[in-house]
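REVIEWER CHECKLIST
Item 1: Sequence provided? yes
Item 2: Single chain? yes
Item 3: Sequence as submitted:
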Amino acid sequence: MSPASLPPATRHPWTPLLLGLIALSLIPALLLAYGRVQYEQSQKTAALVMDYPALVIQARRYGLEPQALLDRYRALGVNGLALYEDTIASLEQRGEVYLKNGSDLAADFPGQAVKTNAVYMRASTPAIAGELRNRYTIPTREVQIGGQRWVEWPSDPRFLPAGPDTAAVNDFKKQGLVLVYRPYQDDAVPTAKVGADWPDVPFIAFTGDQVIGARTPELLAQVDRALGKRLPAIIEGNIQKGLEDLVVTHGGVRLFALAPNYQNQLDPLDVASKYNLAARERGMRLLYLRPYPTINETEAMLGRMQDLLKRSGVKLNLPQVGTFAPSPILKALSMIGPLSALLLLGLSFPLARLGVVAAGVVVVVAFGLNTLHPFEGAALVAAVAFPALGLVLRRSKVTDWFLATGLSLVGVLFVSALGASRESTLGLEPFRGVGLTLLLPLTLVALSFLPRQDIRKTAADIYAAPIRLGDVAVMALGFVLLSLVYERRGNATGGSASTFEASLRREVQDSVIRPRFKEIAAHPLALLGLSGTLPGYFSGLLILAGVVGQSSILNTFSHFHTPLLISAARVFIGLGLGLLLGSIAIWALRYGMRLWKTYGAPRITSGSRDQA
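Item 4: Structure as written out by the authors:
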């Protein structure tokens, strides 16, 4: 099945009209893309935020004052701190309160009606004791024991949230640091008091797997009011329950962090590379850091990170976080393009009826997966239709790869225009149906290989076709490769890269935008298939492999939290490498096949020709 033997596309009378509609709808799509690039270019600031409790622990281990260690890290780019809400235990550590178990107090003062199952507290000032008693719904009472006033708690209050360390917050603000406040939740705090004493800082990062009030509408409403102008942090890999409701009102800021145990398994240069990648390519504005066990390792990480961020054009400052709000009217007009492309694809099938049915299935699936989200549904239609369209319309020579690639790049504009929203650019709403962007275009192009005849005859011919051992091996290899590509789609999947590939990725991503490996592999296969160099059905299989490369182009732009220009650079680098490798592969294969056919054959000399 060489490219020339594949059934040609149907030239439907509506083709010029549909192409015209696609061209016209590109205008609003281009306007939306321009607006998105402007928004993303204005967001290239980030803060290196150090976890302050972790810094304090490290400083004490080395006999340093926390401020002295902070000053060393500030010289290496750290310009922010994450401060946790105080607990009564932290007040005890600072000497502001003194706690004693009832059993111990009863031993010290026998016969004074001390409850052994209670906990007793003395404060450095009456004001602190009164504020803590009034902060919670827990019933307490004041008692006289040993000539001193104690507050009796029915249970251990050490882990109760006790508000911010105001003195520390004010001190760090005077130093010009970007502050992230991390409050705790406890049912003992009345709803009306939640967030009432949050400090005046730009960002709030909730702890745990849910925001405060995620399970209680009244409490969540109070948190929403308490946020004021503060922005909630969107922690990558931990989209906390209830966060979406707060982002609707306030927007959000993306935060990247590594778990301490995982970080300590990595080389400091690897960690620096990951944080640079997060800021440059995933829109992370808060880079949340924890020190290594040693100061030397921490300084190596920070020094490398500062250098990489500077090279990436990311400024270390108070993050300027805007709101991305694309025009609904322009998005509605952009919907015309993908729908027209899908209809053109269906009508261009050699079996036009089959094509129309396939297009209808795609529409149902795309909009069904994106219920009540028509723009996202149309974005999925674009991600499925455009990678397949070029290789259905023309696939008889190598230059047809440029048509297929051009149409895929046109589809990129529609995917961005329709799929990019405030929620998706913040990483809150992942692209629904991302796996289908790889499978459906492949299926559509494969169906277009069916000859222009009764489909029942085609089915009978396929059933009756003899199968050779080589055919089975080729099909098995194709299935394995397709499974591997599907498994490793996206940024975080069950598939894992080899040690060599991981090392190569790190080296490449520190210097340039790393292209996607599946594109570098699939584009040469498409060129090889379109060249018709291989005999039989191998060319058709290689063309199908090339569809994966076209689909990957659209899939790359489906990660809306990645800046548009970064995705464009990744795709064009992949296209350039794919074109170069494909040209080399065509030459090498033709040379190898010619050598295979002629090796060992007797050479014809001029003398033998004369004798003949």
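Item 5: Key structural point noted by reviewer: The CA atoms of residues 522 and 545 lie 6 Å apart.
Item 6: Recommendation: ____
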